[in-house]
Amino acid sequence: MLRTFHRNRTGILPAALLLFGILVSPIAVKAEPAPGKLLLKARHVFDGSSIHENAAVLIEQGRVLELGPQASVKPGGARVLDLGDATLLPGIIELHAHLTYRHVPEDVVLRHGVTTVRDVGGPLHPPRGGDGRLRVLTSGPILTAPQGYPIVLMGAERIATAVADEEEARQAVRDLAKGGAVVIKVALEPGGEAGAPWSGGHHHPAHSGHKHGHAPGPSHGESSDPGNWPLLPEAVVRAIVEEAHRHDLKVTAHIGEEQGARLAVTAGVDEWAHMPCGPITGRVLKLAAEQGVKIVSTLDTLSQCAGARSNAKVWATFEGETLYGSEIAHPDVPWGVNAQELLYLMPLFEGDPFRVLQSATSKAGAQLGIPLLGTLKPGAPADLIAVKGGVAHNLKKLEYPALVISGGTVVVNRFE
User: Fold this and answer.
1) 15-27+92-373 architecture in CATH?
2) At 245, is the pLDDT very low, low, confident or very high (cuts 50, 70, 90)?
3) Strand locations in 25-162, DSSP E?
4) Cα 320 to chain centroid, rounded
5) Is the predicted pLDDT of residue 328 greater than 60, yes or no?
6) Where are the domains of the chain?
């Protein structure tokens, strides 16, 4: 899903300051070069799968070396940072964002707890960051039908590529793969779903005005014929999937309703970029779950949709896998960790906050295909965040981490 504008995380700075990526903080924090070794101690350590008490993590040269009880992990000359009563965990992974297209400041996103972003719909560039900078992975432009979504709303420049037949589709995938895409995104969206941000006039009243510190902005323009935007034929979608798999890439699809969902299932699409806005039949959801499809949540951005949360509940009954995604660049979500998104996920994981966090760390890293990303296993990228106290009963803390480390480089440290 694409919005035509973006929001300041705080909404209280003059717009001009955003051009320089200014971060509202009582403490000016500069990134510290990665030391030879750094030993982190904390009362609670979540490793991407399970929680450890009074544990320590040793990192060196941008990688995790060891995780274990504090008494057993020896510093070996490392700088020691004792966080005390704090929770240490892998950095959050955002699987649905539009940073590049909407010019969201990457340093702001990183300092608010997200260490890896998958940018799905926008300019293409090879993977970058993860070295004291936000790790940014891209899909490049969305593949869609001529005059399909999102072209019908905002044109094709920098955001979409129209493909008219199977050969054009295969060539587009080859070009994206050559340019460094980590996933291929297709749009299977006829439009017209009630409450959908792409249908125009969407703005959640709970997210407007002073309550969330920003003023409502403009929305998508209305299409001349929502509900009848052209879709890619099944044969073309199949060609995209086949060519992507030939290049070891997954295909994620923007899906908003039943027609697009059926097309995705029939063509073998790997992932749905949203929990669909409109109601999806149980039969289609069951088939998708049986195929091993993953769905990126974005439940907060779709909070006005009639079907998103009910689809999510049915999806969970089929043991379908839901992954965290907030859609950074949407006007109603933070530029960083979105605690409301995490809370929307709680019922899908039987109220277990650590299963929710797993969907935003180790499970998300596995979906990206980056070995050990989102975990604290030996060899994992040393992307970590920490908050003071526990998080099990207060996920909101994750929006304002007191420690952020990217590739072993300390970016934020409010413990010293």
Assistant:
1) Alpha-Beta Barrel (3.20)
2) very high
3) 38-46, 51-60, 63-69, 79-82, 86-90, 92-97, 114-119, 135-138, 142-144, 160-162
4) 18
5) yes
6) 15-27+92-373, 31-90+374-416
